[in-house]
Amino acid sequence: MSFTLEKIADYLDAKFIGDPELEICGLGTLSAAEPGQLSFLANLAYKDQLDTTKASAVIIHSRQVDDCKTAAIILDNPYLGYAKVSELFDTLPNPDSNIHHSAVVSSSATIGRNVTLGPNSVVEDNAIIADNAVIGSGSVVGVNSRIGEGTRLHHNVSIYHDVVIGNQSIIHSGAIIGSDGFGFANNKGQWVKICQIGGVLIGDNTEIGANTTIDRGAMSDTKIGNGVKLDNQIQIAHNVEIGDHCAMAAGTMIAGSTKIGNCCTLAGGVGVAGHLSIVDGSHVTALTLVTKSITEPGSYSSGTAMSKTSEWRKSAARFRQLDDMAKRIKVLEKASEG
Amino acid sequence: MSFTLEKIADYLDAKFIGDPELEICGLGTLSAAEPGQLSFLANLAYKDQLDTTKASAVIIHSRQVDDCKTAAIILDNPYLGYAKVSELFDTLPNPDSNIHHSAVVSSSATIGRNVTLGPNSVVEDNAIIADNAVIGSGSVVGVNSRIGEGTRLHHNVSIYHDVVIGNQSIIHSGAIIGSDGFGFANNKGQWVKICQIGGVLIGDNTEIGANTTIDRGAMSDTKIGNGVKLDNQIQIAHNVEIGDHCAMAAGTMIAGSTKIGNCCTLAGGVGVAGHLSIVDGSHVTALTLVTKSITEPGSYSSGTAMSKTSEWRKSAARFRQLDDMAKRIKVLEKASEG
Amino acid sequence: MSFTLEKIADYLDAKFIGDPELEICGLGTLSAAEPGQLSFLANLAYKDQLDTTKASAVIIHSRQVDDCKTAAIILDNPYLGYAKVSELFDTLPNPDSNIHHSAVVSSSATIGRNVTLGPNSVVEDNAIIADNAVIGSGSVVGVNSRIGEGTRLHHNVSIYHDVVIGNQSIIHSGAIIGSDGFGFANNKGQWVKICQIGGVLIGDNTEIGANTTIDRGAMSDTKIGNGVKLDNQIQIAHNVEIGDHCAMAAGTMIAGSTKIGNCCTLAGGVGVAGHLSIVDGSHVTALTLVTKSITEPGSYSSGTAMSKTSEWRKSAARFRQLDDMAKRIKVLEKASEG
């Protein structure tokens, strides 16, 4: 797999400097690239690596091009250029557009054109698999669910009933969509199940990470907008609504009925309590617990910074005394005034 | 799917106000319900919504019934009433009580009456599937394991060997029960595996969430009581014992050999260290780290409250100085006394 | 399954005290063992249990042997002895070295000698399954991937393409290896996917826990060394590198491109930010957020200690005032000096 410098620049609709016939056979960071590979300078902290990189060409902003000793492809957003060119070198096996003889397909299911159903995949009653969709080995699409055009389920994905996934989306292995929301009424100390009769509605161009779980709604649907990117092991509880173009890193958990606006970014391991609202464009840092609604865009955090355990123990012990300490400061201030 | 008001009231053994022939075709919250749907008032914070709801009937306590402008079903515990009636409207596909031709069943396994074995399910040697149990597509029941009467495994569940699951339980997709506990002895810097020869014992009427993992015991069994409800992505380590009627929200992790009493509730993302005891009726708030035993019922917490990141950074920096601050307060107090 | 005391002592290359013909039929802790079982004293906190244990024999250090009233096997490292003897009593079903008729194997795959391919397992194009490897029911090995000699994948494991797993490793159910790293370029508010064209490289003698996820590299490989033990529900992001003989407890998450040295131990629920380095031999306590590189071996922590929620609320409120409190102490000190 290789492309000439000119071909890549054309693909990116970009100007370039260097031999148009230069063969590019792969991608690498400035520090790790080998001869024949294309790199990029997106973060100026790495600018010095332009002097030492073994890359044969670099995607770069016009402002840095004079510092570039290799061939160059010039773009305003080099990182976006890298993203686009990564598709040329993708190693993901192409689907074979076949229905494998071991796939189990209900006679009431609707299967579109050029659909791939992998070995041991299952499509249940009244499910719809739209054109060009790919259902990986061992994946199950439940009753009445719909997989959109060109959407790809990797291996061992479980889709429950009444789940709608839009077009051109990617669902990674082990993801579970449509499992029951966690709802129970307490009856004299025992838990009585609340049947979860809503479904899940997921937009177009989404990506759902490996082993991420998205629960079905209690009465109405859990909703995930267009262009949303969820990393691995995320948990979305029942009736959560997530706006368009949000991105959440691994391990983040959103409790029931919380509404998250558009273009929010949540770092890894964040917990968001239930029945909250988070305004468009909010950012939450890693391992933060969000216990109240966020009404103003900005960056939010909780937790404490890391220390050596021996020092941390002292701080942690004092944390319990904080209210007492604050009161003693007040007493001292009064005495000082007095 | 619809039921008359009278039929629903009869089912709940409740009095009602309104046209007995009123057709109820679904459920909705007070704010989201549409005409023809039944709602409920459980949390008095939503009482004002009685004025504006489009629901055709509301399950309500007798104390609020005068404020209700719609038809009403009168119950002391409206939320419990809602839970019970949700079953009438459940959308979960019924099992077909068939053994699918693609299921792989050991000749030494015992399969009860009216059992459903979905496509590509696997039942290994000497496993027992009791009457009316349902094994979803792609689920595996390991050697010597037992699935109780009426228990349902959704799709792609993995049950290892020597796991006993009681009756009328629900195991969601991607749950793993009986994986090896994390046990190793260190031999000059290298880890030597401790074979995990115990099993897992789970009671009746339990629910295990999607992608939750429950490890087998090191020597004796990991034990989960009756009526326990575990949300998604929970981790139960080897030899944990959980009493009856506990409920744990998503992402909670219990380390090895910890014993949790009856009727405890753990919110999401809680971590409980190993070899602890937690007394009956304890509650732990979200993302708390439990590092010592809880001997007195009550609510327990750790962590810090969320702030804007810019303000949080200051607090986090000061957290490291807490011991110093406390000592300086003491010096000031001495000086003030002196 | 039983062994004489002499046979077990021989197996451990250890001296023993007691009847060489004593039959040992199982293992148990000092407090839980029943007659006929072998126990061990590894942690001296349990030494008093020597007086009351019902075990028939105990693996013990020579220094404690005089306090042992039962038969004894004498070893410098009793816990290691227990680990080794656990193998004799392992209950894990042996693989049958058969290729099940329902397994789906590409004609271009290479299958070694004595390989077990369980029901509904899938081996894709050009994959290699080395001698004595075991692929559990419903597990999938992707295109060009390699499973090393004697390595066992339990049920419903998903291995993507271009993943290499070394010899004698154990991969638990639901583990996902080679899923896409979480990489996107932002283009005017929308996320453009960066194809993840690297693979995953895992060493020998590793163990990967249930539902753990390991992402493939963005351009080069994600790398996990020899002898690494990962518990359940761990997340390893793209291009993470983990040295040899590390152990990580459940729920720990490592963000992209972080490098972890040899022999590090991370407790449960730890979060490590991206692009950091952690030096050999570091330890991180449970639920800690690591936000900067660790350059000196030692133990590191963050978070706060658990309190009753009512008291915690006061501390948490004061946490937000910490910077103000610190400044007020300074003012008081100046006044006091003045």
Give the topology, please.
3 copies of one chain form a homotrimer.
Chain A: E1 3-4, H1 5-12, E2 15-17, E3 23-24, E4 26-27, E5 37-40, E6 57-60, E7 71-74, H2 78-86, E8 104-105, E9 110-111, E10 116-117, E11 122-123, E12 128-129, E13 134-135, E14 140-141, E15 146-147, E16 152-153, E17 158-159, E18 163-165, E19 170-171, E20 176-179, E21 184-187, E22 190-193, E23 200-202, E24 207-208, E25 213-215, E26 222-224, E27 229-230, E28 235-236, E29 241-242, E30 247-248, E31 253-254, E32 259-260, E33 265-266, E34 271-272, E35 277-278, E36 283-284, E37 289-290, E38 299-301, E39 307-308, H3 309-319, H4 322-337
Parallel strand pairs in A: 4-5, 5-6, 6-7, 8-11, 9-12, 10-13, 11-14, 12-15, 13-16, 14-17, 15-18, 16-19, 17-20, 18-23, 19-24, 20-25, 23-26, 24-27, 25-28, 26-29, 27-30, 28-31, 29-32, 30-33, 31-34, 32-35, 33-36, 34-37, 36-38
Antiparallel strand pairs in A: 1-3, 2-7, 21-22
